[in-house]
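Re: the 134-residue chain
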Amino acid sequence: MKIKLIDFDIRGDARGSLIALEKEHNVPFDIKRVYYIFDTTGGVRRGFHAHKNLKQLAICVKGSCKFLLDDGTNKNIYNLNEPTKGLYIEGLIWREMFDFSHDCVLMVLADAYYDEGDYIRDYTRFIEIVNKNE
C-alpha cells in the first residue's frame, strides 16, 4: 500500500504548540486543496471511495477517527488521534472513515483540485481496476 504515517515536528513554548505543514518538507506533494470534516454525526461512516491518482495527507487536528484502508488485497485500520501525525494515502486505495469522536476535526490536504473523474465510488469497480493494474 502507498500509505504511511508522518510525524510532524512540534514547535512551541509555554504559550502553546505549533505545527507547520510545508511542501516537500513534511507534506510529500504540492498542496492544491485543503478541506476539513467536522460535526460528524455519531455512528456515521464516510468515504466509501478510492482515487485513481490523488495523493492525500489526513490529519486529525482535534478529537479522533479511524481509517479503514484497502488496496484490494490487504485491509488495515489506522487510528488518528493526535494532531502531530498525518496519514499519507496515495493512489488506488479504498478508504472508509469511521468512529469519529464528537469533537473530531479531520483536515485533508490534497495534491489536486476536486475532480469527480478521479473518484471510484463502487467497491466492485475498484477491485476490477486494481486487478487490471496488477
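The chain has one helix and twelve strands.
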